[in-house]
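Entry type: protein chain
Record version: 2
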Amino acid sequence: MVVAILQFELLIPGAVSLKDKRRVVASVKDRLHREHQVSVAEVALQDRPGAARLALALVASDTRYAAGVLDRITAKLRTLRDAELGDCTREFLVNPEGNVEPPAPAHDPALDLEMLRRASDVENAA
């Protein structure tokens, strides 16, 4: 399992108000979600009309596939008409074992006894 994260800055020179900025940001978020099935959120610079920092996440089973999707998204961001792509970083979180579920915790008999004792104390107090 791979979680790919792309953080990028959009420079929006035509935005003079936050409303102008929201229009551009919402359009980019909707387009990326619709065309690439990724989750996108504005993560910083919310109070600056001329810039936005967004992050997107993608879950995949293969690092190569995830990198290809991020490459296509980055290329698409470079061609935006209403905004210019600024700083862009990517990160891959890889589970080398391929397990989706975390491993089960080790069984601790002492903890079981302590929990039973506390449950009994609560029942006796009521």
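Comment: Residues 2-100 form a domain with the Alpha-Beta Plaits fold (CATH 3.30.70.1120).
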